[in-house]
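During the first year of the project, the team set up a workflow for recording each protein of interest as an amino acid sequence followed immediately by a discrete structure-token representation. This format lets reviewers and collaborators read both layers of information side by side without switching files. As required by the reporting guidelines, we include two representative entries from the current panel. The first entry is reproduced here exactly as it appears in our internal archive.
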Amino acid sequence: MLNKIVDIVMQASKIMLDDQSFRVDEKDGVTNLVTTNDVKVQDFLQDKLAKLLPESSFFCEEGNVKDLSKDYIWIIDPIDGTTNYARHITVCAISVALEYQGEIIIGVVYNPYQKTLYTSEKGKGSYLNGQKIHVSNKKFNECVVYTAFSAYDKKYSNNCFEFCKELFPQINDLRRTGSAAFEICSIGAGRGDIFFEMKLQVWDYAAASLIVKEAGGYISSLDINNLPLDKPSLVAVANTKENLNKLLAVAKKYF
């Protein structure tokens, strides 16, 4: 099943790479964009994955594709990092997760520009281009932290800035790439150590959440481990349980 999903994702990535005449539209303002290729990639994935698992439903970013009625649910972000993609910044990825009865059991995240393929199956570890990966063992003061500033809902941005202002002296450095899936997977590969973002949608992190957990990491919201499908969440990720708890202790002051 995983190999078949990877093959479908690889085929879908050709739309991203080959069709450069895409149109860019706003969904609800200049900070939330969609391209015609987002829709094309999602349509392609839905068609192929539905044939692969006919008894499944889909929960996707684009359009009104929000069916949670089946045991098997495909959670898809056709292009995570659309603003990057629209500007030809090569930090963007296709993200596909398969959930079964409330648990993510397969995750695939692929950046066709950088040719980075993250894959994971529940209970079988996580891999980057076929090589097994693991989170780092960095202590809190050594951590590189990925974050964002609530770009889609800027009334929370000041909280994010104040949070980062307190966090920054306690860590190594901050990063903001514009793709949550890429950032969370990077933690799984030890290329970063902590991730935090306000109001993240499930398609942004579903596949990456399994990848980082199977690589030995931790993911949570402020007070819960099971993040909801149907509403945006505050998402915290860390390489160790100790670092997650330290991160959440700071976050609770501002969110």
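The second entry, processed by the same pipeline in the following quarter, appears below.
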Amino acid sequence: MAQMVAFSIRMDEDLKVQFETLCNEFGMSMTTAFNVFARAVVRERRIPFEICTKPEDTKEQMWSKNNKRI
């Protein structure tokens, strides 16, 4: 069996609650959901969905949204 390691991420509290609720509805933990995602990325060698922005979002707006200090 492969050695398990801890992995920590930061996310918006509201998003976490929504994600956790949805995972529970699927009958899985958030850890399981992230492992499913990671395995899909490794298997497919790509993010398994399209990533795009709204046309009005500029690079500066995206950077600002993603780099807010808490």
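For the second entry, the following points were noted during internal review. The mean pLDDT is 87. The CA atoms of residues 61 and 67 lie 10 Å apart. Both points are flagged for discussion at the upcoming steering committee meeting.
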